[in-house]
Amino acid sequence: MALAVFDIDGTLVAGPGTEKRLFWLLLRLGWLRPGQLGAFLRFGAAHAAAYGRHTWKKNKAYLAGLPCAGVEALVSGWVARSVPRWWFAPCVDRLRRHQAAGDTVVLLSGTPQFLADALARELGVTRAIGTLCAARAGRFLAEPPLRHPLGAAKLELVKQLCADLGVPATDLFAYADSVHDLPLLRFAGHPVAVRPDPGLRAAAAAAGWEMLGRR
Predict the structure, then answer these.
(1) How do the residues of the chain divide into helix, strand and coil, expressed in percent and rounded to 5?
(2) CATH number of the domain enclosing 14
(3) Interval 100-115: pLDDT, tens
């Protein structure tokens, strides 16, 4: 049995990223008020020195003060209605092949956990690993995430998955679209660059990796 790990944004989902879609949904519905928008901007200013170019990827402060259960319920219904238009069909087909073969399939993404979970349900995938947003007393906080799968952090999460499941790296399939995913793809026995950005395309071509689709 193999382990197949799929990134979400740019890999399974084409077009705008899922979190960007979520931000505009919340804004359009009036969930994002001056308090949330101010928290989002303050996070960027406060954490730029620590996170550098990844500051905005780690910034989930636009959720600050919103009820966790309410956001999750909203997202679940929205994803069920909208996601058929988002999929990158060739990558979803690969996922279905892994499911048919009995492989363990895991979604791994920097998108919030509740959004990754909703997408996993639509695909019939039982495990998703996303960003754990800070929360207290049932409401999101304007604090750094407790877990944020990005770059080397993704690799460490997958190494732990392999150890937990007893799957060697040689039986690991990894599907991703970004140069930030290079640590994971280099670890995997079967790396697949999906609609790769220029940096990943160059690395994949040099390494002779399979490439699926173009941007």
Answers:
(1) 55, 20, 25
(2) 3.40.50.1000
(3) 999 999 999 999 999 9
